[in-house]
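Archive transcription. Copying these from loose printouts into the bound notebook so they stop getting lost. Printout 1 of 2:
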Amino acid sequence: MAESEVREMPERGNAPLVRLDPWAETDFDLLRRINAPEMTEHLGGPETEEKLLERHRRYVDIVGKGTGRMFSIVLLPDLQQVGSIGYWERVWHDETVYETGWGVLPEFQGRGIAAEAAVAVIALARAERTHRYVHAYPSVGNPASNAICRKAGFQFVAEFDGEYPPGNAIRCNDWRVDLTTELTAEA
């Protein structure tokens, strides 16, 4: 899919229709809004402006590196940016896999937007035909993100002790989707 293309997901049940737009230079304000304390509670808290600028640069540049993709989540039909999602390479248990993560602004949470976007991003990662798995690692104390994993068709693998950001201990769940099989998300 070209950088200027978007991915629209058909409506399922009461879930809103979303579109994933490739992350752009103009999305820095969205990243700032996602960096709020209530959005980063399970991720060690808000990042500094410097770290946020570094993150934004990584998001913009990732496509050119061929190691993943980042998107803004756009709510249709209003074309309102409501969050971010993406996938990127990482080594997990001696295997290169994709990791995914998302954030939906508080006023749009609880509507199925993140699950809809996760299904879309899994389809995009699957189409790359690069890695077998995509993983999500929400905190065990984040019931909303763990529910999104279940709803989007991830399979629970195990709990583990991790660090995020570096130096911040966090207990996480490892959720995984096999990209070589078709996704069966909950309705």
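Printout 2 of 2:
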Amino acid sequence: MALMITDECINCDVCEPECPNDAISPGEEIYVIDPNLCTECVGHYDEPQCQQVCPVDCIPLDPDKRETHDELMEKYHRVTDK
């Protein structure tokens, strides 16, 4: 499952540099996560780094983007060419 950023985002800028897949970018009003690049840090870390640094806890799983661990690992290989 990809992650998403909710409107509770305060644009603090701490999540974007933590994403190893460059899936987080500034949106029109708040940061956004590209579900085609988000692997929930599978392949890089044990836990999503953006969730770890978010001071307002506004990065939940996106219920519309359900993926298994194996699917996230396949995406990791595709995104990183590893």
